[in-house]
Design goal:
The chain is built from 5 helices and 26 strands. The protein is mainly beta. The strands form 4 sheets. Strands 1, 2, 3, 4, 19, 20, 21, 22 and 23 form a 9-stranded antiparallel beta sheet that branches.
């Protein structure tokens, strides 16, 4: 594939050099080289696509337990003590010192071949133990919310050991993400109206759904709602969106220096049709240091640090026109979490797995490349891609994506942007096979960084 520099063939060659024959259906690594994992007994899986690997389950154990066992032996030498065993040093007495068991790698990658009714699919899985102090999850972005980079570039710039593409976005226009986003505890964007998302809705998904990670590294599915207002001489005005590419009809949007795109275009379209005409009444108000500095037609381009721009349409525009230059205005905003715990990291995503069961009504027909993320009961983060649109990997459905997350040990999981956006990076290499000749540029990615 022109422009693709992934490591599938290189990984197998590396494994052969160290004397191990690694089939493509069963490769795992804690670093760039893929080494064969220990083989475990396979438990018959639930109906659906099956993975041609013995890594995900063992007799009498959950997939999560087996994942820990498999990763513990990656990179072991013959002298390494296996998990659960002990070793003595120079003595066989009862009080002889016991060598500690080796600790499993904090982050691992494996590749699997999955059989589906339509044909084989290649799936890549990264498991990151966020309970370990040396790992943290983070949102990888450019300088502004609409600035795009490839996932490898995002990972390199953010120093991420692993990364996967993030939220759906306003492709070809503002390029801003559709859902809420939080980076290092700072709110970047709120969700657009559901009817303005480019992707089809997922059953049960609601505006503001995210995959979030707390300050202590605990991942969870959550929902973030914008709580924002501008209070001036005429009273309090509700703010509907933050750095969002679509302001709802009759609403007011807030834009900060995290936005560098066209603000006028955010006041066009309707709540259900992105191609509907622009609102006939549009205006923006600039606030700096708590005072109005300009009331003008909406514009675009970079917003100076410290400036806040309120852009209104329809009734929202009429309300903003009551403000005048020099008026004192207090702007406040926050993304309120349904869980009650503010996230340090959050990326917009649609839940497809809850409490160990796929969400009801998921599409079981459309096959595409997919990206997804899941959470285990023990607090590990699972990143997953499935290749598609090629003869050797036909893609998977949303229903199958949820099932693959479950097989990998997740109890909760979300669907991320897919298709040409699906890209996974591990240790500096693209390990999946993106469906386009060049890596698609995306506004954000979910990364795992080693401290």
């Amino acid at each position: 594939m022109a422009g693709w520099t992934g490591s599938r063939g290189a990984a197998v060659a590396t494994a052969v050099v160290v004397g191990l024959l690694v089939p493509v259906t069963q490769q795992a690594s804690a670093g760039p080289a893929r080494v064969a994992p220990p083989v475990a007994a396979v438990v018959p899986a639930a109906p659906g696509p099956t993975a041609e690997t013995a890594e995900t389950a063992s007799t009498g154990a959950t997939a999560e337990t087996a994942s820990t066992a498999e990763t513990a032996s990656i990179g072991e030498t013959p002298s390494t003590v296996a998990l659960g065993s002990t070793a003595t040093s120079g003595s066989t007495g009862a009080d002889a010192p016991v060598a500690p068991a080796p600790q499993a790698p904090a982050i691992t990658h494996r590749e699997e071949r999955v059989d589906t009714p339509a044909g084989p699919v290649t799936v890549d899985v990264v498991v990151a133990d966020l309970n370990r102090a040396e790992l943290r999850a983070t949102l990888l972005t450019g300088a502004t919310v609409g600035e795009r980079s490839s996932v490898p570039a995002h990972a390199q710039r953010g120093g991420a050991a692993a990364a996967i593409n993030g939220d759906f976005f306003d492709l070809g226009r503002s390029n801003a993400p559709a859902g809420p986003s939080v980076r290092d505890g700072r709110a970047l964007t709120s969700a657009v109206p559901p009817g303005r998302r480019l992707a089809p809705g997922v059953p049960g998904a609601e505006q503001g759904d995210v995959l979030a990670v707390d300050d202590d590294g605990t991942p969870r599915l959550d929902r973030l709602t914008l709580d924002a207002s501008a209070t001036g001489p005429q009273g309090r005005l509700r703010i509907d969106t933050l750095n969002a590419y679509a302001v709802p009809v009759g609403g007011i949007g807030l834009f900060t220096s995290d936005w560098a795109g066209d603000r006028a275009a955010t006041l066009c379209g309707s709540d259900t049709d992105r191609n509907a005409p622009c609102a006939p009444d549009r205006v923006e108000v600039v606030v700096r240091d708590g005072a109005v500095t300009a009331v003008r037609p909406p514009g675009g381009g970079a917003i100076p640090a410290g400036d806040q721009v309120l852009a209104g349409r329809d009734q929202g525009a009429a309300a903003l026109r009551r403000l005048a230059v020099g008026d004192r205005v207090t702007v406040r905003y926050a993304l309120a979490a349904a869980s009650g715990t503010p996230p340090r990291t959050a990326v917009g995503a649609s839940p497809i797995l809850r409490d160990g069961a796929p969400v009801a009504g998921l599409d079981a027909r459309s096959r595409d490349p997919r990206s997804a993320a899941g959470l285990t009961a023990q607090g590990r983060l699972i990143l997953l891609t499935a290749d598609g649109r090629e003869s050797t990997s036909v893609g998977i459905t949303l229903a199958e994506t949820a099932e693959q997350l479950r097989r990998a040990g997740a109890v909760d999981g979300v669907n991320l942007d897919g298709g040409g956006s699906s890209t996974m990076v591990f240790r500096g290499q693209v390990v999946n096979s993106p469906s386009e000749d060049a890596y698609r540029l995306v506004p954000n990615a979910l990364g795992v960084v080693e401290n």
